Structure formats: structure tokens, C-alpha cells
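Entry type: protein chain
Record version: 2
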Amino acid sequence: MKSNFEKMWDSFRLPIFAVILGFAVGAICIVIAGSNPIIAYAALFKGSLGSATSFGETLYKMTPIVFTGLSVALAFRCGLFNIGGEGQYIAGSIVSIATGWIFKDMPGIILIPMILIMGIIAGGIWGGIAGYLKARFGVHEVITTIMLNYIALHTSNYLVRTVLNPETLIPGSVREAFTVPIPEQAKLLKLNEILPQFTYSSAHVGIFIAIAAAIFIYFLLFKTTVGYEIRSVGLSPDAAEYGGISKEKNTILAMFIAGGLSGLAGAVQVTGLIYSVNQVAMMPGYGFTGISVALVGVSHPLGVLASGLLFGILDNGARQMQLAGIPKEITGIIQAVILIFIAGELIVKFISERRKKELKNSKAKEVK
């Protein structure tokens, strides 16, 4: 019987090798570009981990993609592909602004949890719609979540221009391209207010909420009956149904929780740094980055934390690397190689398992 360490190694050896390969290919590209990979990677890690301020910026970059990575990972565990993190994030953001404004006279100790909970509910409903359509009518969640992304985007832009615009809510204000801000008491603490070493950093206590969310999802998936049912449906829907586990119920529940995590990302961003929502022509990208984070983290909540940190390092360190004369696109190459390696292995597994199943079915027919 394998020890816990051996089980963890089996789970994470592929992404570890993929990360090593990604940095190796990145080094080759740097050499081809006529630069020194040692200098490049020294600049990368100095820009992301070299000081408390730079580490704080890495934590800030990491925070939203941990939530969306958890969102995608949980859906994966139920056999679902949640590409709707963008829309769920937007839903959580805009509802957080509305909640903050409606209850602006409440004390922060009540208002902050209320905003976060409403963000979870908004994102959960947005994800739950796709889950319901999948469970009830068999509509593929990839199609519905992509469509819901754009519905959320344009609905948000409408609300920014009208209902939640300062011109509408604050007498004497002119129309702006952003909503009213959340009240002062609804803002999350900055890390530099707790630890002075993080001066000039954008990091806030939302990173602790992200870590807590990862731990919660770990216990939900691996220590509770609800998590067991979600994973059972993901492994084999027919076998789960035969064992008395409802495929429809768990599909809807998984998408609701997944959407709630992305909605929480929006709520934490609103309360942690941006404080209002802009009218935008394109999506922020956290939902799509969350797919990469979940893949590199092998859909494990603790793996998502490590993966989120890696992507935060690459994102934040790219600027320092560019200042050292190295093209910042190198970090994109590293990410791409990591994902290609992991996705390639998953495709091989899928094809192999499918062939085994077909061979088993053909043998069963021969016996009959």
C-alpha cells in the first residue's frame, strides 16, 4: 500500500517535471535571443520574490487566480469544464458593488462578510445556470458558460452606465465609466497596514481568504460525503447513479460551488483593491488563467495554491526581466510549455483509457 508521500508524488510529479521543462525551454529561448538565462531568471525571481514589496505584488497577482483555479478544479473533479469563470467573476464583482452601496451605512464588520457572501451567491447562481442546463437538458457546459460570460459582460456594462453609475446615485455627479465605489469601511486591510515591510505593495488580506478557500475545498472534496459524491460523478456518472448518487444534483451543486468561488474572486478584488467596476470592452482574464492554474495544480486544491504562486511569480517578475533586457514574452513561453506538457499527458491518458474501454466492450460482445 502506498504511503501518503508516494500518493502525493504520483499526483504532482507531472506538473513538477512540466515546470522544470518549461524553465529549460525558456532558457534555450533566452540563449537563442542572445541573452544569459541565469541573468534572466535572477531578474525574474528578484522582481517577484526579491523584497517584501515585490513578494506582496506577487501575492496580489496570485489572489484572484487561486479562486478561479479552485473554481475550475472543483468542476473538473465532477467531470465538468467550467470556462465561465470570467462571467462568474463579473457577476460577483457587480453584485458586490451593489451590496456595498445599498448597505453603505452598516459597520465594516458586518458589511465585508455580507459583500463576500453576496459575491459567492451571485457567482454561484451564474455557474448554477450552466449546471442546471447540463443536468436537466444535457446542454454542454462549455457552450453555456461561454455564452454566460458575454451576457455577464454586457449586463455589467449596462449597469455601470446606468443603475450603478455615480450620475444616478450621487446628486450632482457627472456620468463616469465606472460604478460608485464601495464605502470606506468595506475595504479589506492592506498587508502593509499589518506588516510595514510590505510598503508600496498592492497585497491585501484577500490572500488569506484565498488560502482559506483552498483548505475548505480540500476538506469538502476529500473529507466529506458531498465531496465524495462530486468526485464519484466525475469518475463515473453511470456507476455513481447505480450506487444511488444523483448525477443531476451533483452537477448543479458542483457548478454552483465553482461559480461561487469565481464570484468570490470578484468580491475580494472589489473590496481588496479596485473598489469599483469599470465599463470594459473585454474580460479581465482571471477565469481563463484559472484554467491553466487548475491544470498545473492537477485539480487539487493545494496544488492550485502552488500553481497560483508560480503564475504570480511569472506574471510579476516579467517586468523586472524586461528591464534586464530579456523579452517578457519568455514567461509566456514557459507557461505554454508547462501547459502543453500537462495537456499532452492528459490526452494520452484519455486515449489510452478510451481504447481500454473499447477493447473491454468488444471482448464482452465476443463472450456473448
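Comment: The mean pLDDT is 90.
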